[in-house]
């Protein structure tokens, strides 16, 4: 008993001297990106749930992971939010990026490398959405004299390198962002120039936004391990302690930690339009967009699957007898109400048409006014 008390006292003194407590520490990861690109599978690998059947993500789904800290000083808990549906529901990130979470969160932007025609749109929409939401949260915090916005901007530049040669043209996102290229196994089947265009474009986007860039495939054990380690770092180390490995060769799976690339190494975009195209581009980002879309024309918005999101009420993966029975009953009531409403509308329309027809055939009154039915007697001459 005495030895146990001594141990407890020593542990308490150690915690006090190091500034640590046994309170749990929380962080948040927001995973967004391409529809049906493999985001859920990546999360399951990190949580070691790889054998679970993967269902399509509906809107915003939540899970978590936790890790015990040394000497039983509480746990590290990460809240993981995954946004399904591609870019259709991008505005829902405002439910995750809040004044309470922004100081300890990271964003994973997952893009499907096998669908390059949707790649630029996906990356552009989500980076804009993340920036816009962070700026809005910062405005509220600044109004409260919170030091968090300044601290996060400082950390962003520290990750990138405050003395980086390209600092004058870089604009790092204040929260850690990692762009993950999924389905690298299919990416390798592209033509060499197509693969080069995708790789260089993503390197440029990641570099100017102060983001990590990482290619992976669920069909490669080595790449799975690397992406799991990256996810672990974002979840439990606040983005610090990233791998120092740098791979810039587009013939290999890219691994580009923030701050390790440069515009000089990336080069300039290859354009088919020559100098005219360069002159028409408003800025470097626009120039890269034009060059990318010359190789991969964007899909027609009407062809996008985002316009036809899946209906969970007809998906057999979400069967629940009591809920489904009630839904069927309500559907029948709604159909009956519609039929009654349509019938009443037709009856009212018929009455209105009949009244209109009757008014159109009513005899008109003579202009001189009504004539008397009694004839006035004639007055003859008196003889």
Question: Any chance you could write out the topology, listing elements then pairs?
Answer:
Layout lengths: L1 H17 L6 E9 L5 H8 L13 E9 L6 E9 L21 E8 L6 H25 L4 H13 L16 E6 L1 H4 L4 H17 L3 E4 L5 H16 L18 E2 L6 H4 L8 H6 L3 H12 L25 H41 L22
Parallel strand pairs: 1-3, 1-4, 4-5, 5-6
Antiparallel strand pairs: 2-3, 6-7
Core attributes:
alpha/beta; 12% strand; 383 residues; 7-stranded mixed sheet; 11 helices; 7 strands
Give a structural overview:
The protein is α/β, with parallel strands linked by helices and 383 residues long. Helices cover 43% and strands 12% of the residues. The chain contains 11 helices and 7 strands. Strands 2-3-1-4-5-6-7 form a 7-stranded mixed beta sheet, sandwiched between helices. Helix 2 crosses helix 7 (221-236) and helix 6 (192-208) packs antiparallel against helix 10. The radius of gyration is 34 Å and the shape is globular. 28% of the residues are buried. The model has no long low-confidence stretch (mean pLDDT 83).
